[in-house]
Amino acid sequence: MAHDLAATRRARKGLRPGVNTADTRASAGDGGAPDGPGHAPVIGDRVVADVRHEIGNYFHKLYYWADFLTESRSGRAGDVTATQMLEDTVRGLEDLLRATLEYVRPIAATPIRMTAREVVDGVLRQLAGAFDGRLGHVGDGVPLGERVVLVDPGRLSQLLATIVRRLDVATDPAHGMHVSVGIDPHASGEAIVIRIVGVPVGGARSTVAEVEWATAENVARVLGGDLTAHEGDEIRIALAFPLRA
Fold this sequence. Notes:
5-stranded mixed beta sheet; two-stranded antiparallel sheet; 7 strands; alpha+beta; elongated; 2 domains; disordered N terminus
């Protein structure tokens, strides 16, 4: 049978799909974010465990459908359906591996000094373009003056793209979103904080989406800032960068 053959092939290759265990790595400082640019992000054991489990599931499907195509005698229609499912599985595996490699590789960033006003205006423009007509309220009356932040524009664009993808999936398109800008206390003094609030639609996110979000959190930390998300009756996302003199 296909299941027996798949199990034999997995055993021969040393694969055990579905085991949700992570490598036992030391993760000192896992609970705190670095307070400035240049700190290496911590790779969380939970994320590694989720990825290992998900990759095991994908390989299980690959072996099953490969064996099915080899042994199937159900005719052309069945072969076509199985082939399509196999292609979908391979595509999902490719997306997961891409996100995982992005997560584990060192994050290179070249921060430059920009005025806080430039950064805020750029973020608001990108959000407005992504959610045309859904930004019901934008609160931005913070006097920023000539204060500056250290930001890598390319990495900032990556952060915003990840935020947009999460909000696009996690919020109800029938409701607007609210964006506000403020100044909060920070370990280094003060930080400019951009908050987005929306109405959630519920449902679980994919492992790929969770890994992409973990990568974005690490990018924010490398730049000395923070990216957080909280979900309940509302989904609240906050992106913060320390203000410099």
